[in-house]
Design goal:
This protein is mostly helical. Helix content is about 85%, strand content about 0%. It has one domain (about 1-140).
Length: about 140
């Protein structure tokens, strides 16, 4: 059940990143003043949605047969297989890095004084995080 939630929630995460990055980009280009009732809430909602996804992912990882294999000393076996390596190491580590980037960008946005700096903080950090997410999603295994 957790694996299904983790796979399904990922669609919402991707959608939120697309909406947030699109909104921040177009508002930045139009040179509008930062609106806390809209842009701040959008960035914070994206962070919350991704945080829930991280928690679901960690629950999935810790209850998977891969974690049991790691505890039994089979990490070397997993590292020799590209699919297993992606699921055991690359995907979780990249998602945590993407989450940290998102969190960092949100905090930079909160502390920035000018609207342009607020927009750029989110566009850059959320954009890099989104690319990391897209690059390390196990597409071949998604929603199985």
């Amino acid at each position: 059940m957790i694996k299904f939630l983790h796979g399904s929630w990922a669609y919402l995460v991707i959608l939120m990143y697309i909406i947030t990055l699109g909104t921040y980009f177009f508002v930045f280009v139009k040179n509008k003043i930062f609106d806390y009732s809209k842009e701040f809430r959008l960035a914070s909602f994206t962070l919350i949605v991704f945080t829930i996804q991280i928690l679901l992912g960690l629950a999935t990882w810790f209850t998977s047969h891969y974690f049991e294999g790691i505890r039994n000393g089979q990490m070397g076996v997993y590292m020799k297989n590209a699919t297993d390596r992606l699921l055991v190491l690359e995907h979780p580590v990249m998602m945590l890095i993407a989450w940290l980037l998102t969190f960092y960008g949100f905090n930079r946005m909160r502390k920035a004084m000018s609207s342009k700096k607020k927009y750029m903080a989110v566009i850059i950090t959320y954009g890099i995080a989104f690319l990391l997410i897209l690059g390390r999603i196990p597409w071949h295994n998604w929603m199985k």
